[in-house]
Here is the input.
Amino acid sequence: MLKYRLITAIILIPLVILALFMLPPAAFGFVVIAVCGLGGWEWAQFAGLFGAGQRIVTGLVFAAGLAAWQLTLDMNYLTADLAVTGSLWVALVWWICAVLLVVTFPKSAALWKNSVVIRLLFGVVTIVPFYSGMMVLRTQGYAGGDIYQGSWWLLYVMLLVWAADSGAYAFGRLMGKHKMAPRVSPGKTLEGLAGGLITAGLVSWLFSHYSPLHNLPEHLIPVSVIVVLISVFGDLTESMFKRQSGVKDSSQLIPGHGGVMDRIDSLTAAVPVFAGLILLVFSGF
Here is the structure.
């Protein structure tokens, strides 16, 4: 299993970085849409739609809806688009609600476990703002001629999440004793969370000193701390839905890693929350 995880990571990480820096925003957007469509296909089972046809239709609706939306967007002015900024506000509210659902699980499941519509809505407010956040960050500076600024910001958020995940795994294995959310994900510990924050903090420090970006926002560190914490709950939220649905992995699309949602669950929280906090709550980049 570890061998497959390493091989898959060695293949996927360079492809992600190439897409970030080599594809123009519109083409990059369609890659993100393809990922979101697969995420929607996997989310269908979280909503109780286990039939092959039901899952395919759900994934196609997500992908087609986002593709149609992208065709109406001006990539140079996404932060001025009310639908885009509105979806980021939705993300900020949703992830506060998701935290509450996780910390009160399984009692909170009584509110949504019997409703396919509500569970599908949870998928919408997870996947659609993820697309918005990816595109808003990717297009930062693009209209002004700095075509890689947004790529660096997206890479920064991804590095934060990857560092937090790796640090949490390492510290949890070495020192983990106190369970963080035993009813949702028994393997996660408070020691692991602390380790994730430490490793993510190191990444943030290195980025602030060695990235090619200038005039970094003064609120970058507190925003980064919030994003790392919320990324943990992105993972826990998916674990909560999988546990309630009786699903171990979201799918088997990625050898050694499970499904698409298993790989992007933390990012679905981190990306829109980072974009929303930087662009809507604070003063921007």
